[in-house]
Amino acid sequence: MNLVKANKESITKASQIIKTGGLVAFPTETVYGLGADALNPLAVAKIFEVKKRPSFNPLIIHIAEKDWLNEFTIYNDERINLIINKFWPGPLTLVLEKKNSVPNIVTSGNPTVAVRMPNHPVALELIKQSETPIAAPSANKFGHLSPTTAKHVHKYLGEKVDLILDGGKSDVGVESTIVHYDNGNFYLLRFGGVTKEELEEVIGEIKLKPHNAKNPNSPGQLPFHYSPNTPLYFFDEKLLSPKKKIGVIFFQNKKVDFEFNIEKFLSLSGDLREAASNLFLFLHELEKENLDYILIEPVEEKGLGKAIMDRLRKATFKHTIPNH
Ligand code: AMP
Ligand code: MG
To answer: Is the CB of 14 under 6 A from ligand 1?
Structure first.
């Protein structure tokens, strides 16, 4: 049985699991989270695998002390400090420019990362002992309600998590408020445990993100999807023109008789978890190479392959196939 009462011993055991790349479900004041070491891309890929999400979405990283924010984000505005001093620990998530230390799979390729310090003694102790931020979405399967008890988590995820820490009922039960800081402005991305008015008392006006084609979100939804600036197409031999600078991302070890400018392999052993953990990283790397286009080999749509293909369909969609 992987469900245990949260106490000194079980929290220490849980932190060992986090440190060695495993998954731990733990209580926060909002809902139960499904956590992994946020700095370990393979561990983060497991979260998506277990949640069976049909697509990737960026995850919130949970920290144990306010100071940790500086290690993972870049900002220069006193108002951010006002916010964290007033609302942390608590149900308030800040989206800020990320440092390189945050893996791309955590942010789904976005240049920003969402961070919060939860107000729950079990969560804080677990993160502290793990000595790393913990990336955690709600501990339920896609399409189910967010769990507010350890029993719910067990019902949804069973033995697929290495350990479930039972710390009683989450008392807020609603998710965290999400605020995005961008170029001197604050935008509310999701309503949650802290109200807009409470925030405005501390930092003045907060805007709602304008709706437009690139940003069709209402609060609670993704503010944006990352896709590379270089055109991206599914691999097709017809696109192999010697006049073009082409980068390719193969799933496994594929041999094609063509001089690519750059060639990458998501997972030589064909492991979808490894492939997921490399996907956004490779897209970013190839985007910097001044290529005419990037080709990517489709993966099999099972397990994490579904989420990978969903993301790739969206990222390839905006580029129509060139004439040649
Ligand atoms: P939760 O459902 O509480 O785990 O929060 C996850 C949500 O936080 C995502 O679905 C996004 O709406 C939001 N989020 C996380 N990271 C980012 C980010 N880098 N930029 C914008 N929104 C984010
Ligand atoms: Mg959720």
So the answer is: no
